[in-house]
Write a structure and sequence with these properties.
This protein is an alpha+beta fold. It is built from 8 helices and 4 strands. The protein starts with 13 loop residues before the first helix and ends with a strand.
């Protein structure tokens, strides 16, 4: 960009303009009107000063803009340097990785293939013959003439017979005294009445009045259902071989004046 002061003559006749300016102000101080030449030169001086002021302001703006641009450029340069460092690091890692892969490939090329190794491998040694089984003891041949199941009348004497009979009797006695395990079940029944006006005490009494071989009644309680209705929850222990759960439920439901239904709440083996 061309400076505005480059086209002005004031820079080439500076001393003339300064003399004219001095004489101009002296004439004004003395009250003498200036000559046309002095007025023209004074106007040129004022114009030159105005251009100098504008140029200085322009240069200040350029300096400020240049400083901002320089800061931006420096920031961008710093960012580019960081990116360059990262790229150098990535390239170095890639080179190291490629070098390790080349080493592995060379090692794989040096090692023989599995098929070739199988061909060059020596044949396995012949399996050692299994040892022959030992011959049967001669005692087995010697027992051919012995009758292990001979009759008592021939080889068993009376004393051995009495001992055997005594041991059998003792074994039978011990077996008869051994207690027999009886399978039992603990059952909790939910007995539901018809409505809230059912006499629950009478219903429980009717349920406990049921007697069956192998049935023992346990604890009971009243459990709320809804709308003021309560159910009877009663437990019992039964012998599985003697009492059928279905028969027990039918006997309870036979009390139609009190019982609406019977459900099994819990069933556990004892």
């Amino acid at each position: 960009m061309t400076s505005p002061l480059a086209e002005e003559r004031i820079w080439f006749n500076k001393h003339i303009c300064e003399d004219a300016e001095r004489k101009y102000y002296e004439s004004q101080a003395q009250g003498t009107p200036p000559t046309p030449i002095q007025s023209s030169l004074a106007a040129e001086v004022a114009k030159a000063r105005w251009h100098i002021k504008q140029s200085l302001e322009f240069m200040d703006g350029v300096a400020v803009a240049t400083a901002g641009a320089s800061t931006d450029v420096l920031n961008r340069l710093a960012s580019l340097e960081l990116e360059n460092a990262d790229l150098k690091k990535a390239v170095s890692e890639l080179r190291n990785h490629i070098s390790s892969l080349e080493v592995r490939l060379k090692n794989m090329e040096i090692k023989p293939a599995p098929a070739a190794a199988a061909k060059t491998a020596p044949p396995p040694a012949a399996a050692a013959p299994k040892p022959a089984k030992p011959a049967k003891k001669e005692e087995e041949d010697d027992d051919d003439g012995v009758d292990l199941f001979g009759s008592d009348s021939e080889e068993e004497d009376e004393a051995a017979k009495k001992v055997r009979e005594q041991r059998l009797a003792e074994y039978a006695a011990r077996k008869s005294k051994k207690p027999v395990l009886i399978a039992k079940s603990n059952i909790i029944l939910d007995v539901k009445p018809w409505d809230d006006e059912t006499d629950m005490a009478a219903m429980e009494k009717a349920v406990r009045a049921i007697v069956m071989d192998g049935l023992v009644w346990g604890a009971s309680k009243l459990v709320p259902l809804a709308y003021g209705i309560k159910k009877l929850q009663i437990s019992c222990v039964v012998e599985d071989d003697k009492v059928s759960v279905d028969d027990l439920q039918e006997n309870i439901q036979s009390n139609e004046d009190y019982v609406q239904s019977v459900d099994i709440a819990a069933f556990n083996k004892v």
